[in-house]
Every structure is written in C-alpha cells, then in structure tokens.
Alpha-1,4 glucan phosphorylase
Amino acid sequence: EKWPKGDEKSWKAALRGVTTESPEISKSIVNHVQTSLARAPYNIDDFGAYQAAALSVRDNLIVNWNSTQLEYSRKSPKRAYYLSLEFLMGRTLSNALLNLGVLDNYSSSLSSLGFSLEDILVQERDAALGNGGLGRLAACYLDSSATQELPVWGYGLRYKYGIFQQLIKADDGTQLEAPDPWLDHQNPWELPRLDVTYEVRFYGNAQRWDEGTGRATWSGGQEVLAVAYDVMIPGYGTKNTNNLRLWESKPKRGFDLQSFNAGNYERSVESSNSAAAITSVLYPNDHTSFGKELRLKQQYFWTAASLADMLRRFKHLEKPISQFAEYNAIQLNDTHPTLAIVELMRILVDEEEVPWDGAWTIVTNTFFFTNHTVLPEALEKWSVPLLEHLLPRHLQIIFDIVSHPAIIRESSLFLQSVEKKFPGDREKLSRLSLIEEGFPKQVRMANLAVVGSRRVNGVAELHSDLVQKNLFPDFVEFYGKSKFGNVTNGITPRRWLDQCNPSLSALITETLKIERNVWLKDLYKLEGLLAHVNDSEFQARWAAVKHQNKERLALFVERQLGIKIDASALFDVQIKRLHEYKRQTLNILGVIHRYLLIKSLKPEERKKVVKKVVFFAGKAAPACTLFKMSTLLPLTIRLIVNVARVINADPDTNQYLSLFFLPDYSVSLAEILIPASDISQHISTAGTEASGTSNMKFCLNGGLLVGTVDGANIEIAEEVGEDNVFFFGHLTPDVEDLRYQHTYHPIPVEEKSPALAHVLNTVSSGIFGGDGVYEPLLNTVRQGDFYILTDDFDSYIRALEMVDEAYSDRTEWIKKSIRTSAKMGKFSSDRAIQDYAQEYWNIESVKL
Ligand code: 73E
C-alpha cells in the first residue's frame, strides 16, 4: 500500500478550515493527526486515518455523553442497569457515524484528504468481549436503550483479551486458538476514569455481630482495585448517549507489597492469583459452567464494583435507602451476576444497617433475571467450600436467605415459607432449595436468582414456556405465574440492516417513501413493502441488491481463501458457535448426502441441479484442557474443512456444490455474510435453542430460514407465514421420548435412515481422509444420538429439497424474500427494550 495518500495542498487547506468538504470535520481530523497522534500532516496510512477519524468522532460523542449524564443527574429518573459478563460490540466507528448522522460528511471529508471511508472502517478491530448470542444481545439492547432515550447503563468487565482468534490449520483442519490483544492500540471509544475506583475484597473472615440482627463484619483477605472505563453508547437520531461502564482490575497499592515484605515473593507475583488476572481474559466457553475459581472472582469483582458505583450514585440523590428500588432496576443477564443479589444484601445489612427484612424487600424489588438457556450443563452451581473460602460473608448470607434461625419475620424465611405452603413435601423442598446436597454441596445460582428477583423471563415464547414448565415448575407453583414472563429477543436494525446492507436500506427508504430515520426507529413500517411485492421492477431491484451482496461476499472469500465463487448459486449459510445442540454435524452430513447424490448423476442430469455454495463459520470452545479432550466439536470443524477440500476439488461436482469454512467468525464477518444469504440454517434439536438472534438478522435482510420448530424460529414463522419458512424435524415434546427410545429400544441407523447410514459409512470409508479420526464423532450419531440427528435427517433432507424447488421459481422466491423482510418489525430490539422498560423496569425516557 502506498502512502502518504493525501497531498500536502488539501491537508493544509483542511487545517486552515477552507476545504469545501465539511471543513470542520476535515479540520478536526487533521488536528488529531498532528496533536493526538503526533504525526506530520498527511503522513499517515489507513490505520492512522482511522485513528484520527475515530478521535474526531469521539469528540462529538463526549459532548453528547456529558449532556446526557448531566441531564440524568438533574432529573434523577429511575435508572436501569444491565449487568452482563459479555458485550459483543463489534466495530464502533461506522455505528457512531450513522447514529450521529454524519456518515456522508465524514466520507466526503476523508476522500478530500485522500482516503476512502470503506478502507478506513475495516481498520478497526472488533471489540469482541463475548462468546455469541448472549453478548451480542446485550450490545443490541444498549443501542436500543440509547436510541429510545432510556436511562440505561451497562456494566461489564474490560477484558484485556476478548474471545480468542480462531485459526484453521491448513493441513488437517484443526482449530488453533490465539489470544485477541484488542487493546494493543489505544481504544478511542473508551474514557478511562482512573479516579473512579472501588476496593473489592476476597477471602478473609466474616464475623457475625449477634445472631439477632444477621449483621456481620468482613475483613482481611485480599483487596483489589476496580477501575472504571466508560464506553460511550450513542443513540440513533438523538443526542442521548448512554454509558457502558467496564471494570478493570488492578492491585491495590500495598497488597502486593505486603506479601513481598513477608518474604512471599512467589505469592506476590503468582499470576493466577494476582489482581490483574481477574480481568485478563474472557472465558471462551458458552453453555458450560466449570466452577473455576477465577471465574467466580470475575463475577464477584464485577458485581461488587457495579453495586458500589450504583450506591454512590444513589446517595447523591439524598433519598432514604428504603427507596433504592424506586430509583434503580437491575437486570441480570443470565445467572453470571447473581452474586449481586447477595452483595446488595451485604451492603444493606452490614453497612447501611438496614434490618434484614427491609433489606430483602429492597433487593427483591430491584432485581430482574433473564434466563438464556435450559441446557443443564450451563446452569451455574458454585461449590460451598469454594464460596466459603473466597466469599465467606456471602455464603453466610446465602444460608441466611435459605433459613436463618435467628432472623425474625417469617415472610422472608424462604424455606420456612415453602414448608408452610407445601407441608411435608420434602422432595419439593429439596428441588426449591438454593443448596444442592452432595459432596461438596453446591449453591444453585439460578434458584438464587429466581428467589432474589422481582420477575423472571425467558427469551422467546417457547423458551419462556420451558423455563416455567421444565426448569422452575416448583417456583411457578410457589410464587404464582405472574412472577414469570417472556421477552422475545430482538436485534438492532441500525447495525443489522442499515449498516451492513446499505443498498437494501436505500431501496427500502425509496420504496416506502418514508424517511430512513423513521422506519429505522419503527421497524413495523417495513410492512409497507408488502404493497410492492408484485411490482416486477421492485422485485428486480430487490434481487439485484441480494446479488450485489453475494458478489461482495464472493470477493471477500476469494481474497481470503483464494477460491472463486459463483454468485449466481444459492448461498446457504450456518454461522454460530459450534455446539452439539446446534447440530452443525447434521448440516455437514447433509452436504455429504448432496455431494454423493450429484456424483451419482449422469453429467446431463447434473445440469438440472440447483447450484449451491455452503458457508460455515463459528468458533468451538477450546477442547483440550490439561486432562481431557472435552468435546468433539473441533472434530466437526475438521470434518467440514476436509469435506470442503475434497468436494471443492471434484471436477464432476464442484460447479454444482461447493463448501467453505470461514475462519475466525466475528460480528464483522457476520455483517458480510448475513446480507448475502439466500437461506440460513437454524437447526437445533427442538427445545434446545432458547431463541437465536441471527435468524432474525438473516430474515431482516431477505434471507429465508431452514429451521427446526425451536426458539424464535417459531415466532418468525408466525410473523412471515409458515409458507415462507422451511421447517423440518421433530417437535419439542417428542424429543424426550426419542431419547428414551435411543437408550432402551435402539433402532440401527440403517433402518431408521438408510440415506444417513450411507453418509456415515462413506465418511468411515475414508474418502475425506482422516484415517478413522471421525469415528468418535460418527459414533455419537450411531449410538445414543442425544441430539436426535437420526430421527431428523430424512425430514431435513426433504426440507432442503423444498428449498431447491422453491429457488427454481425465482420470482416466487423473491416474493418470499420481500415478504419475510417486511414482517420483521416485531424483532427490532427497540420493541424488546420497550417490553423490559414497561413490564419490568418501570423506567421512562429522558429528553435532553
Ligand atoms: O438461543 C441463544 C439466545 O438467542 C442462547 O443460546 C444464548 O443467548 C442468546 C440470547 O438470548 C445463550 N448463551 C448462553 N446461554 N444462552 C451462555 C451461557 C453461558 C455462558 C455464556 C453464554
């Protein structure tokens, strides 16, 4: 790349503020090059230009952020806090430009300085502080909260390393994990608040005062410092700019010195126990709870700092502490922040001297809990001995919540009130208990979250139903139905339509004859597209946009993998975390089935086949702990990569079917893939995917779904009509029976699905190499088959045949695509956030 790109003359003009293109913006960019970056004018590459542009945009954000926070202080509205261990933000510059309404100005200003906005946007590293859907949901919710001018702050951790970078070894397709040092360059989107700090204690001793009050003193142990970093969250089309406060851990001066002085050098430098280790890395496991001490430390460090911060803010209001819940709502994003319930009890009882019952009333009016999965392996449990060691006071409080003999009023004595309601039902009692018996005993965080919260919700209708019927039936019986609800997830149409698919956004604006900033804030307006479904010119333009996005993806793949792709083929996409329940294995076995079928055809018959390109992307939780190979997911990646190698090189078939595994899936990669899909796959075993959110993103961009009757797929089909979704597979109520059958009355695959048996045997035969390495993976299908691939395979293949058939009538297909997109209003995260604001948090917008 050649640089300097700009010419001296235009840069000097910009400095003097005499350019024709947005003079103020040009001047501010050039100023930042000279001052903040300390570079000679125009002596910068694309990355430098990105940094200067970002710093210039940041100046605007700071002004808005300040006015917003000032207004919040002045009006003291009730606030909501979204506690999430993960915020999967992706890139910020283009989002900030869009939300501030200055995208075109910056684009022209940059080009007058010799740069292209497009090249500059891709210089930014993703902020990838999350694993998948749960973290991305948090990011969408922040966007929608700011856009709707709601006083909502996020609280999370400032991990030094985000989700690992995935590399795929070229020779055998194994996944390698590399660290993600996303903070190596200065991060323009955060404001370090080195003066906003809190001390957080670990270990030590808890000494009760007297049994009557339930109060105690907690002292000793290790103290670390939490330092605040504020990330500005601009709303779309409003000055309102909210805050995401991320905590960084650092040693409290003195602690390390103390152990050093005591001659314990090893301890003072020991990395796993050091203060800095707490926020060093995001745990890359989703849907698993490991019980690791460092993870528990993260959870407490973050909830303690966040609560101390909220308390400090509340105290500025000079209101009695009894009104805390009238000014604060706290949303728990899954059970990860459940310790906040216990920490608020500790603060109220031990420090604010609130009587136990009063404290419990405040707590149970403040918290709200969202469950995101019913998979048992994801349900967090912390061992009692570990809690006792790390957080001795909190363990006391947990036991007190269960039943403290000396705490006075009965209403808050959980187990006693259960006993009163269901006398003698000991099994029910043990199911409701916060403590699971065993060696060691464990604290069930989900039960604690339910007990300590005002309301509990799932993330899609089916999921919320399963939460009530399967996960917490006894709690529903105990508290009544009204404590439990549903908020179906949503996605922000700003990032997931306007930013990632500007051509489609422009076509929609033109067709609806409504301003973009209106329909982007009221996504139900998309229904207006239905009036144009039969307009052949509109159809042609709709199809042209899709084709253009497919070419953009094709170019990306060609640059990355060096392989040319035919953009006129049907693009079939499955992108998400690798997980057994998401059944990427079903998809790859389906691809092999298609390959064998095409291969078996005579050359002239092959010409009738619908051309297809299959894309996979997704990270697998790192498999090798020191002691064991924990999952077979990396094997699934190897299989995909090696099948791709064989079929992409097969001259008999490769014009009809090709296959790609794109490494290092990220928010930014999703932004390229989603607008380019004709169909996407959401094929979890029924009842296992709580919601899914990428399904919404694909549909919003006019892609159709192949999916099971699961999660939000169901509600999408309700909106767009079942004839526009390719459903297949067994329903949720069947799954348990099938699993029972597999265990007690197994039927060989050959009988159940000869087609699948043929595919499995072909893989075993070694035509995709591997020398038998795939056997453990294939055996999970042949025996046990927990995720019921054998039961769903034939119906899956039929669904894909229906796709081929539908795609052959291109006009009908385009109509389906338009209808799908038009009916996605419900899935805007603006609607979801309104649900939370009204039905849960009881907060109102604040106008500047
Ligand atoms: O279905 C998705 C859902 O759309 C669900 O699997 C995911 O949350 C999304 C947003 O609601 C989710 N992630 C986790 N649990 N459910 C999870 C669990 C442990 C660690 C990290 C993430």
